[in-house]
User: Fold these one by one.
Assistant:
Number 1:
Amino acid sequence: MKHLLRPLLIVALATSARTLPARAQALCSYDQCALRLHRGSLVQGLGGTRVARLRGWFSAPRIDLLENAGDSTRQHYLAFRALYHQGAKFRTASLALVMATAITMLTNPHANHYYVPLGLAVVSIPVGNAGYERTIEAWDHLQKAMWFYNRDLPRSP
């Protein structure tokens, strides 16, 4: 009988694990579980337990706490990820244009016409600016997701 109960218990725990973060938020007080930004990381609680590292050129961090939270939190978190990825694409394209400018200038330094490198440099400015704007908008959505997450935490007695 014992050998039958163990697999059933494992299956029951595995299927209920998906809903655990939302319930864990309800059991956690504000002081223990509130999210905040600290030195390039998302930390939780007074102790500052790191939840996610927020540095990265290409992809936004996956933050399970925000992804499994309430609708408003999840909506802003998903917007953060989408905008962060768009910003990364624009920043990468801008960097590629700047590198192409440098390569073009260095391969033919005595040319009398610099139209191609000048054009590449000029195009890199609005592309980089678009990436910067999307990244700033992404950070705004992350701040809103954190606010909604923290708002739903029960206050300490």
Note: Residues 39 and 54 are 9 Å apart (CA to CA).
Number 2:
Amino acid sequence: MTISKFIFNATLVIAFFKLMSLALGVVRDAAIAQQFGTTGFSDAYFMAIKLPNMVHGIIGGVLVTVVVPVFAEYLSRGQREEGWKIFKTVMTLVVLIFAIISLIGVL
């Protein structure tokens, strides 16, 4: 399998699961609206999940659009070790950023 075909297939898988995530989010929101209506509890819930979802969307979008193609490019050149080094560095930064944001949110 060529690297272009691999990237295309990986992109299709990611797009499919992103679409499923959005569809399930609509179902979740509809179930909450059905159960609670527009109350203070549902408003508090939606406000509490807005920031984490936004951060997840931004970081997830960056990983999909930047890191995956760069990683695949390194693998296609046979530079497997360098590709994994970059991937591990980026993932470490992402985990640290999420940990800091989580701690700020808890405080």
Note: The chain has a mean pLDDT of 83.
Number 3:
Amino acid sequence: MRDVHQELTDGIVKALEQGVAPWQKPWDAGTSFMPYNPTTDNAYKGGNVIWLMTVANQKGYTDPRWMTYKQAQEKGWQVRKGEHGTAIAYWKRTETVKEKDPETGEERKVERNLDRPRPFYATVFNAQQIEGVPALQTKQLTWDPDDRAEAILSASGAKIIHGGNVACYRRGPDDIKLPPRASFRDAPAYYDTALHELGHWTGHPSRLNRQFGDRFGDANYAREELRAEMASLFISAEVGIQHDTSNQAAYVGSWIKALKEDKHELFRAARDAGEIADYVLALERAKTAQAEAEAPELTSEPHDEEVATQLEPPDPVQYYEPEPQVDWGYDR
């Protein structure tokens, strides 16, 4: 029987061994570049995101749209002769069954939860493998990426300390250490690093409560780094800033080892990374909703100075003076 989970994991490991970050996919500022299905307009999730980005890198695809042969046909599009699809994997947790209505006796379809999830596989093709697909309409963002990233950091309430030359999350004092902003080559590099450390921050027992490693190189440490790296990729893509993979080299060996030992680790890590991204973005949405609810209603058109007194500025990220260097925790 075909083992798609093993195939996908082997593909990721091979890319890592060749020195290529499999999820490295550049996108222009102000746009989002994550795999999605144009026939359903749904984004791919979990390990499938990482795998489709890996294949796109290897084959030079610049289009984020992927779909099955049948979905393309239903749209009147045609997969080119000789093209090979890409396998993706899901866990099926429900199934649709037919049963008779006890009152009418009519047969109806009912969705039931499975006692145990079952693997489900599909083959998808990139839009560049298909004829007749309309030109890609780039999804332009309606916000400034740097402003959005700053708002996410602020909404988290995380304690961020600037100083020194190491970026890390410290579990004991529950804070994030970052070098001064001027130490980064540009704003996107700063925010990408900050979002990576914010991913670690979510693992605190009072938040998502993940198991951290005891030291660099051990199994739990490597797994936590993999989750934070994937989470920062997901959040960076949502925000529209360039994801930086230049700091991954130190962890590649540990990632390869973890993936080789467990073919399901890639999917577990991507699932957890999705939870991290959802958690962080939910904090931002809650902060925005609260600010909108608390904003005073203006019954007339006041002068500029009146507006300034009625509307409070957003809370800034809380920055602190550097403390003496101690246990650095999780480094970039």
Note: The two ends are 40 Å apart (CA to CA).
Number 4:
Amino acid sequence: MNKGERHKKLLLYGEESERLLFREITDADYDIWMEFCRDPASVQYIMADLMHKPQEACKKWFDRLTYRAKNKLGGMNALIEKETGAYVGHCGLLVQDVDGEEVTEVGYSLMPAQRGKGYASEASQKCRDHFFSNELGDFVVSTIDEGNDASVNVALRNGMKWYKKGKLLQVDYPINVYRITREEWLAGKVAS
């Protein structure tokens, strides 16, 4: 499968989970995402340098989305709550460079009002299942900043286990890498 075909398969546009619809993020979402960027707790792990600069943080976020699309590196999906139409957040499969190795990550970020409702686990499990069902690799990871216990809990609920400490190419601070292999995923499906 070439890079363009793989990139398309990494995107979950039009997919859904029990409570969520996955759709493409558009420029119209920018103003909505400003609410995320105004919340210091939202950006403390992913853009700590811009914690008190929400305009710059939002621009950087959307610039990253554009960069990923142009370079066929997967991407985020907007998550919409089916019942109410509420904007829940972003989740998707991202091609990352961890310690010089290209890996696919399940990434997620939720609007402040949508946290604690199980949406991150639901969306990340949908991404994990999509990844393995479409045979996009032998394992998928989540990269989590030290101290981000909420994301660790999501990774664990996603069947992942701590794998190693590492560094993402674009940041210069340590992260923890959690991972689930195809074999572990298949074993979990049989046990369910």
Note: DSSP finds seven helices and seven strands in the chain.
